[in-house]
Amino acid sequence: MNSTDSRASAYTTLSRDSVHEVEIKRSRFITYLFRVDSEAAARDHIAALRKTHFDARHHCSAFILGPDRMVQRSNDDGEPSGTAGIPMLEALAKRDTGRGTDLSDVLAVCVRYFGGIKLGAGGLVRAYSDSVSQALEHSTLHVRQRLRIFTLPAPHALAARWENELRAAGYQLEPSAWEADNAVLHIGIDDTAQDAEQLAAFTAALTSGEGRLLPYDTKWVDLP
């Protein structure tokens, strides 16, 4: 499914990549968090960390992709089955971002340097889960929103005023296209039917019913 066709119109992701380390019974757990937009990008990061930490015993990983979080993968990388990758994935999937559990486009890689003390299956599950959870606590997040873009042709003499009134009403405007006959305003709104109806009503009032509001595109943007 293309991201513009997703059911979700917003989700939470990382603001920036980060790294956090914890020590548990002499083992070092170094958790890297990356923002990724494809499986290929995730696997490139994992491969790079294998080279950087070539002397580590394990490079366990988990990632979630897409606005609807349809792609979810995990890898135990030699740890007993189910003790590393799945706990890491659950820590990502169940993370409450303040908007619910909507964290996506994120990769977690936990590099383990064995400290000589075996943790047991239960200990490993807790260690990998806690490592990712703590890394998330030390990271910053933001919302990624899908915008629906509309165009509105405007007479040259009125374009600046229309832009100002749209901005004052809280609408997002992209640079206008200035053509020979008129200017074409590009207006962004949250991709919901209600917001589209409100924009149509606002522009009808703004243009005294003469404006031709047309659908143009959709795109994802990072909100401040």
TrEMBL record:
<dbReference type="InterPro" id="IPR036956">
    <property type="entry name" value="Impact_N_sf"/>
</dbReference>
<feature type="domain" description="Impact N-terminal">
    <location>
        <begin position="25"/>
        <end position="136"/>
    </location>
</feature>
<dbReference type="Pfam" id="PF01205">
    <property type="entry name" value="Impact_N"/>
</dbReference>
<dbReference type="InterPro" id="IPR001498">
    <property type="entry name" value="Impact_N"/>
</dbReference>
<protein>
    <submittedName>
        <fullName>YigZ family protein</fullName>
    </submittedName>
</protein>
<dbReference type="InterPro" id="IPR020568">
    <property type="entry name" value="Ribosomal_Su5_D2-typ_SF"/>
</dbReference>
<comment type="similarity">
    <text>Belongs to the IMPACT family.</text>
</comment>
<dbReference type="InterPro" id="IPR023582">
    <property type="entry name" value="Impact"/>
</dbReference>
